[in-house]
């Protein structure tokens, strides 16, 4: 199977599974506990149909929109995802360049394998940095100042990871950073010699923004869960969000909002946007799908703050449904990571291209030529 034979996210997933060792694939692919929320994030979209109108002039379809003060070519954001160097040796450099090529918003994680400064110098297109509140508050504010210096356009605070979810796939595979050979994973690494060769012959893996926290040598093995539980502050409160917003002084999103109450508080503390997100089903199993909770949050704060639906998006039809119900944008994580693992920057570009083509085609089939025409009359809830 090759990139040219990948026609949807499921195809990219299958190719990624063939290309990278099992612990790394399951880190991308897995969720918390029994993974009910992981599955429901996508199936939630099945509850609505799209309503087309015919006899409309769709010669020119405009997919551009404004997100967090930046004009972008698509309402699809590349969500922040950690440690991309593990999935392909070009890591976040590949995903950021693909986003720039397509004119889309790119997000960089605190747990990235490429530094804030490198991405700042690498792309000039819209870019958002995602922070966590560490126990070491000084580190948090140091990251904010580094983002200012690197000319990031927005900041995002993730609030749903004060403790790591029970990611049983990672526990079974022994997923650590950097990867290590174990009796259970040795065969998986041995069967992917190209990945091993690329990993060993390119720059050493590190959490580039946090070297002072875990050692600059990159030799210490620590699980993702161990890092989160030892470094992230469980005493996170709305005052921390307010202080971070004030320290940044620019467009600011709060990621992990899953209730009307939290959405209203985000408005009150001065956030520019909220990302309705359950961390891709990787934290609290049986939390609602973002798409399920979207209408309630739109009713409560729509028009007061930008709303980004994050989680389960696998088709551009999902994006259209979310926008019709009041979201300003959607974000994707796993889809572009599958593309990265499958083929580096070319793989990410292939994924973004599929989303772009599908979004334009479906807009035409619905009789729409502007995203602003999407509203509740364009969807119908199934009985």
Radius of gyration: 20 Å
What ranges have pLDDT less than 50 throughout 5 or more consecutive residues? none
Q: Architecture, CATH level 2? A: Alpha-Beta Barrel
The sequence of SSEs as H and E is HHHEEEEHEHEHEHHHHHHEHEHEHEHE
Task: Output mean pLDDT.
Answer: 93
Largest sheet: 8 strands, parallel
Query: Spatial order of the strands in the main sheet?
Result: 4-11-10-9-8-7-6-5
Shape estimate: globular
Given the structure, what is the number of helices? 16
Would you tell me the structural class of the helices and strands?
Answer: alpha/beta
CATH superfamily: Aldolase class I
β-sheet strand percentage: 5-15%
Name of the level-1 CATH class:
Alpha Beta
- Measured as a percent range, the helix fraction is 40-55%
- Give the distance, in angstroms, between the N- and C-terminal Cα atoms: 39 Å
Number of strands: 12
- CATH fold call: TIM Barrel
Instruction: Kindly give the count of domains.
Output: 1
What features would you describe in this structure?
The chain is an alpha/beta fold. It has a single domain (3-48, 69-360), classed as TIM Barrel (Alpha-Beta Barrel). It contains 16 helices and 12 strands. The strands form 3 sheets. An 8-stranded parallel β-sheet has the order 4-11-10-9-8-7-6-5. Strands 1-12 form a two-stranded antiparallel ribbon. Strands 2-3 form a two-stranded antiparallel ribbon. Helix 4 runs parallel beside helix 16 and helix 13 packs across helix 14 (290-301). The longest helix is centred in the C-terminal third of the chain and has 33 residues, at 334-366.
